[in-house]
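Appendix C reproduces, verbatim, an entry submitted by the partner laboratory led by Prof. M.T., so that reviewers can inspect both the input and the predicted structure.
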Amino acid sequence: MTYSIAGMCRRTGMFGVAVTTSSISVGSRCAFAKAGVGAMLSQHCTDPRLGTAGIEMLEQGKTAQEVMAALALTGPEVEHRQLAIIDRTGATGFFHGKRIRSTHNNSERDACVAIGNIIKTTVVTEAMVETFASRPEAHLAERLMAALEAGFDAGGETRQEKSASLLVVHEHSFPLVDLRVDYDANAIGQLRFIWDNYVPQMNDYVQRAIDPEGSQYWVPKI
């Protein structure tokens, strides 16, 4: 009951993920990324520990394929999971557990991978990667957001999407973008609204963290 995409911007080195589902708070459970390392998605009967473990293995120098192979051997419970990953080179990997009974799929293009389960059609993930790949000049977060919208337009989930998340990392230990809609009848539309309003302030929030004296922020007059 989730569809998602992980991607890398080859121009900037940014990594990120976008994900939506019919359950609550998908961003707190399924999305993982670390600057200079990669990104990962863990969904379907979700185990967030797999996302954390995947990022740790990427940081140790393992490739996307090596991480997927290792996670596939973690025990019988992994057969309930669906995973996707992208490493620092832009290489991707995915895993579908044997206990996933619903319509599910994966699609890959250069520096991106999309996965989905309990989706209306396998076209969902194809539409996502096609949209991502068609806009290499755009900001990574915009490409991921557009991919999520394309998945919805292609059929989306079999139930109403109620939460969505957009996560992008770049250069720093904190995310460049970490936007979430935890419960809304129009989760993807609301995430688009938040992202569009966040863009003009995005770089200033980074500046405030690394150089508050040089940043532009409002201080009340006393």
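The beta strands are 2-8, 15-21, 31-34, 38-43, 82-86, 92-96, 104-109, 112-117, 163-169, 177-181. Additional entries are available on request from the coordinating office.
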